[in-house]
């Protein structure tokens, strides 16, 4: 699974391709990017990155995603991405699966090189989103054509492939039609999952689930407030009644214990508990949104955790206080305890004592 686990990434990639719904991890943490240094551009904190990933793995995270927008992967250079991939692979992650994101706008040559690097490092899955170089009016065919060289490069490297719709980053969504075109094209046989990070559930996640051309693929919910609904719907869209939905979550970077609780409730079919626990996360998610239709700025939680500041920015004190106010407003003590423990994952951040008090309800 990871470079130093008993199951190599390439072998697990083949298991995923053989049976995506049966083998895909139920949850993936879209990881923060621990940083150090000063503006105008900070750098990756290698030791902190490894320590953070190892703590996520120790907490029970089934998989991690490197270079997602949670960690400002969309603003990094190709060289910075390659460094992040290498550093992450040095972590002792046990059975936690390594996955990564690739970007069409980096070009065919860069993506072939990065895909080979990921395979060599023991990554199992490479996700591909629409490129930021597309026109907002691009057709489904143009979106598929933009993503297809990266799908092909990842498949040729022996990776399993995920497709990813995140219009907040790409500027344009990926439709089920574009996904179906990619699945039918070169490398499409290695596509195993579709990650959906869109605000409108009916127009995104539900359409992917109900498209019969995509019926063998896992649909991974990325807009976190929709998770409980996706987990409820997942078994309804598999011919064998299996759970077809998972989550790849940026908030799981700061709420790992709460997400594992949500997933355990879903496995018991305790949908009321799953929804109530998700509501607690959503309070914090909303506290990091400046626009309710845009994904939250999770770098604010990263700063609370002691993982550094944004690559090219600075989290403001009032933004921190807004998150703490939301944490205090979580109505159930058990939820506050899990969320506080998750935010205090490193146990040495600048708000360690305050999070301990929040966990006690004081």
Describe the structure.
There is one protein chain. The chain is an alpha/beta fold and 362 residues long. It has helices at residues 9-18, 20-23, 46-59, 78-89, 108-121, 140-156, 167-170, 176-183, 205-210, 227-233, 256-267, 271-287, 299-304, 317-329, 333-343, 352-360, and strands at 27-30, 35-36, 43-44, 63-66, 97-102, 125-128, 160-165, 191-196, 218-221, 245-249. The strands form 2 sheets. The chain has an 8-stranded parallel beta barrel, surrounded by 8 helices. It is globular and about 55 Å long.
Q: How many independent structural domains?
A: 1
Number of helical regions:
16
Please give the CATH architecture.
Alpha-Beta Barrel
End-to-end distance, in Å? Answer: 41 Å
Enter the CATH topology name: TIM Barrel
Question: Care to count the β-strands?
Answer: 10
Radius of gyration: 19 Å
List keywords for this structure.
362 residues; alpha/beta; TIM Barrel; eight-stranded parallel barrel; 45% helix; disordered N terminus
Summed up:
With 362 residues, the protein is of the alpha/beta class. 45% of the residues lie in helices and 12% in strands.
Question: What order do the helices and strands come in, and which of them pair?
Answer:
Layout: H1 9-18, H2 20-23, E1 27-30, E2 35-36, E3 43-44, H3 46-59, E4 63-66, H4 78-89, E5 97-102, H5 108-121, E6 125-128, H6 140-156, E7 160-165, H7 167-170, H8 176-183, E8 191-196, H9 205-210, E9 218-221, H10 227-233, E10 245-249, H11 256-267, H12 271-287, H13 299-304, H14 317-329, H15 333-343, H16 352-360
Parallel strand pairs: 1-4, 1-10, 4-5, 5-6, 6-7, 7-8, 8-9, 9-10
Antiparallel strand pairs: 2-3
Helix pairs in contact: 3-4, 4-5, 5-6, 6-8, 10-12, 11-12, 12-14, 15-16
């Amino acid at each position: 699974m990871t470079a130093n686990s008993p199951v190599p990434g390439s072998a697990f990639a083949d298991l995923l391709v053989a049976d995506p719904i049966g083998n895909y991890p139920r949850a993936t943490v879209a990881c923060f990017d621990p940083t150090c240094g000063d503006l105008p551009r900070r750098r990756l904190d290698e030791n902190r990155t490894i320590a953070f990933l190892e703590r996520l793995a120790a907490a029970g995270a089934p998989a991690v995603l490197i270079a997602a927008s949670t960690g400002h992967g969309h603003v990094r250079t190709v060289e910075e991405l390659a460094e992040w991939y290498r550093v992450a692979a040095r972590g002792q992650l046990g059975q936690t699966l390594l996955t990564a994101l690739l970007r069409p706008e980096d070009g065919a040559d860069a993506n072939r090189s990065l895909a080979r690097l990921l395979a060599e490092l023991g990554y199992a899955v490479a996700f591909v989103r629409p490129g930021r170089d597309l026109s907002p009016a691009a057709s489904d065919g143009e979106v598929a054509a933009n993503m297809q060289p990266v799908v092909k490069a990842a498949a040729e490297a022996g990776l399993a492939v995920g497709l990813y719709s995140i219009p907040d980053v790409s500027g344009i969504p990926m439709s089920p039609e574009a996904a179906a075109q990619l699945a039918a094209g070169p490398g499409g046989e290695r596509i195993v999952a579709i990650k959906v990070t869109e605000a409108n559930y009916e127009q995104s996640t539900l359409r992917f689930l109900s498209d019969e051309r995509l019926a063998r693929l896992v649909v991974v919910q990325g807009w976190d407030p929709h998770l409980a609904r996706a987990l409820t719907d997942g078994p309804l869209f598999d011919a064998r009644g299996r759970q077809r939905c998972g989550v790849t979550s940026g908030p799981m970077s700061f709420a790992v214990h709460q997400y594992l609780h949500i997933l355990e409730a879903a496995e018991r079919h305790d949908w009321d508990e799953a929804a109530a626990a998700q509501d607690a996360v959503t309070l914090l998610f909303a506290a990091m949104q400046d626009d309710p239709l845009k994904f939250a700025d999770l770098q604010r939680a990263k700063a609370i955790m002691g993982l550094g500041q944004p690559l090219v920015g600075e989290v403001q004190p009032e933004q921190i206080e807004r998150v703490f106010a939301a944490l205090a407003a979580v109505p159930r003590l058990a939820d506050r305890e899990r969320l506080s423990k998750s935010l205090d994952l490193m146990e040495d951040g600048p708000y360690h004592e305050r999070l301990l008090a929040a966990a006690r309800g004081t």
